[in-house]
Write the structure tokens for this entry.
Amino acid sequence: MPSISKKGTLMPESPIRKLVPYAETAKKNGINVYHLNIGQPDINTPKIALDAVKNNTIKVLAYSRSEGSEVYRTKIAKYYKKHDIHVNHDEIIVTTGGSEALLFTLGSITDVGDEVIIPEPFYANYNGFATASGIKVVPVISSIDEAFALPPIEEFEALITPKTKAILVCNPGNPTGYLYTREEIKKLKTLALKHDLFLVADEVYREFVYDGLTHHSIMQETGLEQHAIMVDSVSKRYSMCGARIGCIVSKNKEVMATALKFAQARLSPPTYAQIASEAALDTPESYFTEVNEEYKERRNVLVRELKKIPGVKVSSPKGAFYCVAELPVADTDVFAQWLLEKFNDKGETVMVAPASGFYSTKGAGKNQVRIAYVLKQEKLVRSVEILKKALEMY
Amino acid sequence: MPSISKKGTLMPESPIRKLVPYAETAKKNGINVYHLNIGQPDINTPKIALDAVKNNTIKVLAYSRSEGSEVYRTKIAKYYKKHDIHVNHDEIIVTTGGSEALLFTLGSITDVGDEVIIPEPFYANYNGFATASGIKVVPVISSIDEAFALPPIEEFEALITPKTKAILVCNPGNPTGYLYTREEIKKLKTLALKHDLFLVADEVYREFVYDGLTHHSIMQETGLEQHAIMVDSVSKRYSMCGARIGCIVSKNKEVMATALKFAQARLSPPTYAQIASEAALDTPESYFTEVNEEYKERRNVLVRELKKIPGVKVSSPKGAFYCVAELPVADTDVFAQWLLEKFNDKGETVMVAPASGFYSTKGAGKNQVRIAYVLKQEKLVRSVEILKKALEMY
């Protein structure tokens, strides 16, 4: 039998995937499982986006342009302008989700063996994309005690080698919910310019910022034009994760010309999803106000309830819809499985994402979980109650 | 300025892309351009597929399963059964187009520096996927004089090294239109088993087979279960290139488990497109009969007319909707540009795909073009007339 690739062997499994069979068995046994484990919002997709697809008049479902239609990219540029990000349509390439935007970015700026520095914990799939690209993630650990703020810039600098090609941040952060301040972004800029590194920012949660704070994009930094690459997506913004539309944004022409070659090889992003995404740009502001208000309330409820549990540590997230909590257990992989396999309270249990998958440092985050607040408030309250009882029994 | 990757520098541009600005200028100057250059059919997408999307009742456009929904995969398995291919739903992973199926396959079975043997000329984007994966395409040249039949198996065997991981074929072939016989597939099987190589077949044109011939899939070969990986797509079958839905099919559990990890990293294939693709499986047989009849007629017209031009050599394709023609010019890249830039006949010209992009051997195919017969017969006749006049003048 021919053997699979080393790369394939090294590809990480989704940190949640291992738990799925246990969740399925629990459900088969009549247990109600509250899903705190995934970033799939329960918020309705804007009607204007759904209707655009329902009312489409396509007869031949043809390829679109590899970089996305000019009309759509022009509308995206207009949307960015509202966020004080000034780019032209030809500084945007439409991709199949933020995932592909990141893959094209890594393909364009890294070769096998190159290194990318990422503050840890980070979005688990960065590990997968790095493995698929044959590059090394060099983590800089951030601390729950500092609410996962940017680690001291000296810690980044100490890790830079001739192989370092980029620093990658997620802002606001998944799984941390941390929102980088303007000063932190400026520190990263100074470092990127000093060492001539790309600064890649995954800004897919841009709209989800609370407590009157403002999101600061790397694309707003003057002088960083040749170094900044932004990764974006419609998935969370419009609660349309299933569309699979994202984009790469950069003013570096060489990066864009290179990313376009990767885009051409896969022909085009999905057509229906582009119709939905283009229409979604006309979503009224009130949608975001309401959604943000809802998430803020959920966050408040979740953090308040979690803090009531003895031994639980949680940092109040300023953005996105996740928080990382430290639990009084040795290994949350084991605990999360136990929650599904062995525990229930009045026929109900919770599924959480063990945080180990969000670290690349071996053994880090073993006592942490990521909780997504994508459920209604009463469900969140009940979920935390279940978690509390489970921890008492465990 | 930070530099882009070596890989990015090596990524090939689409062979047609270079010509696009010339086509746009021609159009701006009022020239009517017949597009013989792309595999975008003019055939209507089945109404049943389009209607399924128009009638969808989605409220939250959520992630689907990374491997595609079980219902859809079960229906795909049923479709294969009609083609005498016997697989279960868990031997199928739904991908974002055939492109992603091929990328996941290469990721699962090759590491940087590995080699894949491919009969040449081949689908141009194989070069892009190979570059993106850091692997080497080892071509075996097939000849227009043999209608691009499988080259002698000894020629494959002579190229096998310890780095060789797979043989990749496209059947029926893009750009050749060649349909491998059952015997040729068996020869490849014997070779794959002897050297323990994967045999990967891109069978996206399965339905497009003419002259009463039958398509023979690598999945029909007993004994090849652990070595065969099939790449498929809905793009051409249902004229829905813009959906971006394909799949990987294999009975090798290790390959499937590995490909699934790549699939998980990018979360899920597009949801709307899966709705269309699932519904498309209920397309009545008459659709294919009519479409095939139409393509067969187009091929007949095209080949007949091309043969009338002095100095033009063309092999009659048995499948797909392309043919490769040899023209009495030294360099079809130059000629194709000239057609758009300098030539017109009564305000009309043609755009063809220079074949050099379908070869990885430097300098091969310089006097060949790929012609896609995706236009109505009268347009094909007129296109060849234009080509004839152009060649006379050139």
The domain at 6-44+286-393 of chain B is CATH 3.90.1150.10 (Aspartate Aminotransferase, domain 1). Chain B has a mean pLDDT of 96.
